[in-house]
Amino acid sequence: MNRRKVVKFLFLAAGATAVSVSGYKWYGISKKPALDDLAGYKELLSEMAETLIPATDTPGAKDALVGDFIYKMVMECTDKKSQNKFLTGLSDLEAYSKGKYGQSFIKCTTPQREAILSHFEQKGKPKGGLMGKIERRYLGNSFYSTLKNYTVTGYCTSEPGAKMGLAYDYIPKQFVACIIMYPSQRSWATK
Amino acid sequence: MNNYDAIVVGSGISGGWAAKELCQKGLKTLLLDRGRNVEHIKDYHMANMNPWNFEHRLNHSEKDLLENPLQCKHSDESTKDFFAKDKDNPYIQDKSFNWIRSYQVGGRSLVWGRNCYRLSDLDFEANKQDGTGIDWPIRYKDIAPWYDYVENFIGVSGTPEGLPHLPDGPFLPGMELNFIEKHLAQSIKSNYEQRLLTIQRVTNLTRGWDNRGPCQYRNLCARGCPFGGYFSSNSSTIPAAMATGNLTLRPFSVVLEVIFDEKLNKATGIRVMDTNTKETFDFYAKIIFLNASTIATASILLNSRSGHFPKGLGNSSGQVGHNLMDHHSNTGATAIHESFTDQYYKGRRPCGFYIPRFRNLPGQKDRLDFVRGYGFQGQGERQEWQSKSQNIEGSGKNFKEQLTTPGPWQVWMGGRGECLPYFDNQVSLDEQQKDAWGLPLVKIDFSFRDNEKRMAADIMVTAADMLTKAGFKNVQPFNYQMTGGDTVHEMGTARMGNDPKTSVLNAYNQMHDVKNVFITDGSCMTSSACQNPSLTYMALTVRACDYAVNELKKGNI
Asked: I want to staple A105 with a disulfide (CB 3.0 to 4.6 A). Which of A97, A162, B43, B425 is the partner?
């Protein structure tokens, strides 16, 4: 078997496994996502993003309206399976928060929030290598991957994020190939 | 009204040049393009936008990804309008081939990679040397002055290296390598004979040129440059043609066929359909240049059937549509370097580095399991949020601090390898299925073969070796799916040659069978070499225009 055939075989096998192991789970991620529910989570999205990227001496995710961006991206730029996983993830997160701390994520303290996100980060860690690729192809991105990806993109491409959180050079005019970094140098916001 | 001295089909990189040259030589010229007009600066609607001005922050919507996967693969939210939609422009893939198209005035010259390298006799003699395909009808000395002519007009920045197999030109100052690239260049120089790393030779202007530029180091070229910082038909050749007063530009004109007169044994004109009104128009001229791009030009010829040419115009050799090539670029390596963390750069250089071909050079004794060679294109940078975020965990202040500061240096380099001409890699027309203009759908049957696969494997090994020797860590060779079309260097479907029985065009890109038709886009290429090919198309175009006008004056066509 050459490499491509092996990959194809694994993909088929993984697909079959995904179906046979849990028909219910397969239905759960392949059904039409209940996207109408997402609008009710806007505040939660915004608070999760702020926990990930808080305001410090530079603006945080809330200042950059990252919650609204995550909402838009999940609605318009996300595949169906990842949408389903994201919606399920949101209700799981709230359930976990209430079970563990007796209150909604939004009411939790910063250390509690960070612990909650860490729990879901460990749970949703993208698997490396071929098996990870197969899993993402068949099951979509994990809840936490989607949250982190859109939070980071939303912040770093926002005006406050790019200009104050990072360093934004709208028209550089010149290329300086080698410069010594100064202390507290931020990354360039765009490539 | 419908009579011209010359008609040029296609306004991309070679068609723009044909129009400019013919107009400047005094010919009333009609330039046709199937897409809308894109006027320099005025129609670069995305050029000055910030990331936050885009609805999806430069990402594609899920709807676009599903409807237009190929268009999305080569574009982002800011450039997608310069690529043809898959949904509206179907074609048939007998084997997987990604046909990336730009249907607008200027064609792909708006979104091209801007790299310019000359071919040399190592390339022009290659087919003859190893007995592949047919011999090129020209040698380097035939094209060298035309390379000069083109480079002097478009402006190419680069560094002369004195390599016989990658001849230098009249370069503008080359852009500078950054710290890690200099480090890698130094390491390669001291570890290998006959290998070097140089800055890419690109049409980005390091100083003002022809009333354009200089480059402002925004690296947003593919949106169209409001500073005219790089060469495109739109910024350069079309305005020059327009300035003569001899140019008529007709957008929204899809070519149905070349009109052939059996009695005169000449092409007399072009039949087009207006894509807005679906009306058909005939335009007539003394000479015709086909510059529709490799696959489209072949399909126009194949669709121009007559009693005299039942297999398509000028196809007595049976070679039209065959010998399709594209460079392979799916292998290479990436790695990080843990040192030099106090070094950074400022400005966004719109090009990377180039490692010219070092395999199978004259006099080398290495026994390799493939013929020809490859070059590397690559880039060194500090990891920024896009790549860094995947490797940092947690949330809060610490996460943010890591996210917003530069990570380790990273180098990425990918091979660009020569593809041999294979007769059965071909473009043909489907007899049943038609497109929106009633034209038969294009069928593409293409695959890379053993020589390309063995070369691709060698690329991974040499890339990893060079990075390892330079002290890089986490050296990871990569091997993406090897699909034709992905390098967007299609060529070869109407090849040049000395013998009319085995080639479509002569040494001046003139059809053997139809003396007043010239083809100077990628379809003329007899072999692919491994260099980015556009500069060669431009030089061949200028040379062919010079020849065509002389022949016209002499009354030979």
From this structure: A97
Q: What secondary structure letter does DSSP report for B233?
A: I
Contact status, residue B266 vs residue B256, Cβ threshold 8 Å? no
User: Are the Cβ atoms of B347 and A174 closer than 8 angstroms?
Assistant: yes
Is residue A172 within 8 Å of B345, Cβ to Cβ? no
Supply the mean pLDDT for chain B: 97
For the stretch B81-100, pLDDT in tens is 999 999 999 999 989 999 99
Alpha-carbon distance of B530 to B220, in angstroms, equals 26
> Does residue A111 belong to the interface with chain B, where contact is any CB pair within 8 Å?
no
The CB-side HSE value for B239 (13 A sphere, CA atoms) comes to 15
| CB nearest to A172's CB, from B52, B346, B396 | B346
User: Is-contact B533 B487, C-beta < 8 A?
Assistant: no
Question: Helix A80-101 crosses helix A143-156 at what angle (to 10 degrees)?
Answer: 100
Q: What is the DSSP letter of B343?
A: E
Coil, strand or helix: which one is B78? coil
Query: Which of helix, strand or coil describes residue B124?
Result: helix
Q: Is the pLDDT of residue B445 over 80?
A: yes
Enumerate residues 6+ apart whose C-beta is below 8 A from A23. none
Question: With contact defined as beta carbons under 8 Å apart, do B174 and B143 qualify?
Answer: no
Cβ distance B56 to A76 less than 8 Å, yes or no, reads yes
Tally A–B CB contacts below 8 A. 150
| Torsion (CA) B130, B132, B135, B139 in degrees, nearest 10 | -50
Whether B544 is in a domain gets the answer no
CA A20 to chain centre: 28
Which of B176, B396, B481 has its CB closest to that of A175? Answer: B176
- How many distinct structural domains can be found in chain B? 1
Instruction: Give CA–CA dist B187/B76, Å, rounded.
Output: 35
Dist CA B327 CA B490 (whole Å): 8
* CA–CA gap between residue B325 and residue B156 (Å, rounded): 26
CA dist B294 and B102 (Å) reads 13
Structure tokens at A189: 């916001």
At B62 the three-state DSSP class reads helix
B77 to chain A: nearest residue by CA? A77
Q: Are B523 and B491 in contact (CB under 8 A)?
A: yes
Q: What is the pLDDT of residues B320-329, one digit of tens each?
A: 999 999 999 9
Q: Which of B557, B518, B508 is nearest to B143 (CA)?
A: B508
Residue corresponding to tokens 């529709």: B292
Q: What is the pLDDT of residues B160-173, one digit of tens each?
A: 999 999 999 999 99
Q: Is residue A109 helix, strand or coil? A: coil
| DSSP, residue by residue, B298-315 | HHHHHH---SS-TTSTT-
Torsion sign over Cα B304, B310, B311, B317: negative
Position B291 in a domain: no
Interface confidence (ipTM) of the complex: 0.95
What is the residue range of B345's domain?
A: 162-201+328-417+448-483
In whole angstroms, give the CA distance from residue B453 to residue B349. Answer: 32
Report if residue B303 sits inside a domain. Answer: no
- Residue A149: φ, ψ to 5°: -60, -50
Given a contact cutoff of 8 angstroms between Cβ atoms, the answer to whether B178 and B380 are in contact is yes
Residue A136 burial (CB count, 10 A): 17
CB contacts under 8 A, B 211-230 vs A, are: 216-219
Q: What is the per-residue pLDDT for A5?
A: 52
Q: In this structure, is residue B308 part of a structural domain?
A: no
Q: What is the pTM of this model?
A: 0.95
> Which residue's structure tokens are 């002055």?
B145
Residues of B in contact with A173 (CB under 8 A): 216-217, 347
pLDDT band at residue B430, thresholds of 50, 70 and 90? very high
